[in-house]
Amino acid sequence: MKKLLICLLSLLLLQSSLYAAEQAKAADKDAQKKENKKNGKSLFWEITNGKQEAYLFSYFKGRGDGLHFAYSFDGLIWKSVQNDKIFLKPQVGKEKLMRDPSIVQGPDGMFHMVWTSGWKENNIGYAYSEDLIHWSEQQEIPVMAHEPNCQNCWAPELFYDKASKKFYIIWATTIEGKYEAAPGNEDQYAHRLYYTTTKDFKSFAPTQLWYDPGFSVIDA
């Protein structure tokens, strides 16, 4: 009985220690984020040390492993950031992909990102960040959930319109049976561009057709 009591006490102490360590880790992370925000530090600051402006390019590798960055001071010569580090790994979508990341900074200074989350999804991925380093929980935006014959949602592009104070999301989708695929198109996709708008990434306007040139089109 005494041995059992000692084992239980040891287990409780271990759990308490692990919980305290996790709490301390979370507190340190929050403190660092606050310090970065206070000092105006972000990924741009890490690259330039606050001395020079730079261009920043977001990209993925392979099938869609995650978010990578490259930077350039002249738009001609580019270097990967932190040895091609993955800054955000995909967590949403059936296939957990992160392709075609598109990022825009909102009027509040927050960076918003959308991406292709799968090959045959009716949604796209979304996350936001204050500094391009620490990211929010990832979400799925069901942009084509209303369309039962939706085949995919690819290559979303994100824009902010100052006049309407809205974010525009534009992407390519094939709706089976709605448009004919071009002759010789082996994958039989007949993409058209669709869009939705939002002010807060919580509620979205009904999806509408954005562009139909009479043939398959992608990468708006």
What does this structure look like?
- The protein is of the alpha+beta class and 220 residues long.
- The protein folds into 2 domains: 39 residues; 169 residues, Tachylectin-2, Chain A.
- Helices cover 20% and strands 28% of the residues.
- It is built from 2 helices and 11 strands.
- The strands form 3 sheets. It has a 4-stranded antiparallel β-sheet with strand order 4-5-6-7, with no helix packed on it.
- A hairpin with an 8-residue loop joins strand 1 and strand 2.
- The longest helix is centred in the first third of the chain and has 37 residues.
Write a brief caption for the model:
With 220 residues, the protein is an alpha+beta fold. It contains two helices and eleven strands; from the N terminus they run ααβββββββββββ. The protein has two domains: 1-39; 43-211, 5 Propeller (Tachylectin-2, Chain A), CATH 2.115.10.20.
Strand-helix topology:
Elements: H1 2-38, H2 43-48, E1 55-59, E2 68-72, E3 79-80, E4 99-105, E5 111-116, E6 124-129, E7 139-141, E8 154-161, E9 166-173, E10 192-198, E11 208-211
Antiparallel strand pairs: 1-2, 2-3, 4-5, 5-6, 6-7, 8-9, 9-10, 10-11
Write out key terms for the chains shown:
single chain; 220 residues; alpha+beta; Tachylectin-2, Chain A; 2 domains; 4-stranded antiparallel sheet; 2 helices; 28% strand; globular
- Give the SSE string: HHEEEEEEEEEEE
Stretches with pLDDT under 50, minimum 5 residues:
36-40
Structural class, by secondary structure, is alpha+beta
* End-to-end Cα distance: 71 Å
